[in-house]
Amino acid sequence: MIPRALLSQLTSCLFSKIHLRILCNSRNYSQCTLSPTELPPALNASFAESETSKNDHLNSFLIRHVLENQSTASPSFSNLFEQLNSKANLQLPHILLYENMGRKNVTNQADLTPGIVTIAHVLPSIGKVIVASGFAIHDGGLIVTCAHTFYQAVQHLSSSSYDSKSKSIVITHDGNLIGIAALESHLVRSDLVILRLQHEHKLPSLAVDPYPAPTTTSLLTYDFQTVSLSPTSTPTVSYSWKLAEVLCYRGPCGQEAQAGTYDELTSMMHSHPSSNGSSGGPIVNKETRSVVGIVRGSEVNYTNRKRIGFAIPSEHLYDAFRLPGMPDDLD
Questions:
Q1: Pfam families recorded for this chain (predicted)?
Q2: pTM of the model
């Protein structure tokens, strides 16, 4: 006979897995092709296939830029995709500072903008551009984004179209195009990727909070809108900051988890449904302007049928870095 406590635990896990399956069926990861087909939010597909003609000029510009700058120092998209496996859960020899109180020189959203980027996976062989968001951390040469956008981009490629001409590039908010030198680490369970900018480029980094924001904390979430080409052939990123609040946390089986306990916090649920192209963008504490989450997507809350956002708690970023005060030779 199965003990009552064990039976209760098994039943709880079973319902958690059923709950997770329901969530997965209703989730919409915030990646997009330039530009996503306009569909009602509840029907917007995970992988938007179509492009609107208004972005053809920008796509041509990015494809031409990639073809004219085939530097051996910049790995192809296929090489970066392969590094998702070779750099899986790799810990970097750096320390990411604990900045839960923010920074004195960051007082509004405009101070955050220079450190936020758009990442474009440019696929010349099929004439497509897949976009996501990201932001600079540590010394400003490291960029955080979501891994699922790489998997979305590779779905557009057949084995015959894998070539060295496909590239991933970073578009800054002042219109500069920067190559990616390497994929430094892929945190598999967290859906996070850390990239290093080419030629030792540095952007203003964002402060990261290592502690989960309590429920009802006021947030500012980065909301990507589009990238367009100015008359001077400079890429221009349109975006906004949306007010939101922390609704709850969820664990690996989709069950509700509590901050400040030993619960594993896999997802941070918040009140703003993320837009396509926002994946990898920062969610900051409205008061401190420190990053408390990384945009991942949105889902329909099956209890009230409202679409809400879900994000990766920023504490997961620290899994890719050394702990402060630990010796260098510690295995």
A1: Trypsin_2 (PF13365)
A2: 0.83
Percent of all residues in the chain with a pLDDT value above 90, rounded to a whole number? 58
Residue 293 burial (10 A CB sphere; 0-12, 13-18, 19+)? buried
Checking if the pLDDT of 309 tops 80, the result is yes
Q: What is the pLDDT of residues 28-78, one digit of tens each?
A: 555 444 433 333 333 332 332 323 223 778 889 999 989 888 766 789 998
Collapse the DSSP code of 237 into the 3-class scheme (helix H, G, I; strand E, B; otherwise coil) and give the result: strand
CATH architecture of 32-94+113-200: Beta Barrel (2.40)
Question: What does the pLDDT look like over 182-210, one tens digit per residue?
Answer: 999 999 999 999 999 998 899 999 999 99
Sign of the dihedral through C-alpha 72, 73, 76, 79: positive
One-letter-per-residue 3-state SS of 107-162: CCHHHCHHHEEEEEEEECCCCEEEEEEEEEECCCCEEEEECHHHHHHHCCCCHHHC
Residue 46 one-letter amino acid: S
Q: Could you read off the pLDDT of 139-170 as tens digits, one per residue? A: 999 999 999 999 988 887 766 556 678 999 99
Q: Which of 329, 225, 327, 325 is nearest to 275 (CA)?
A: 225
Domain boundaries, the chain: 32-94+113-200, 208-322
Q: Using alpha carbons, select from 170, 284, 168 the residue that is nearest to residue 227.
A: 170
- For the record, the structure tokens of 144 come out as 């955080």
CATH number for the domain whose boundaries are 208-322? 2.40.10.10
Q: Of all residues in the chain, what percent carry a pLDDT higher than 70?
A: 79
Half-sphere exposure of residue 174: CA atoms within 13 angstroms, side-chain side: 7
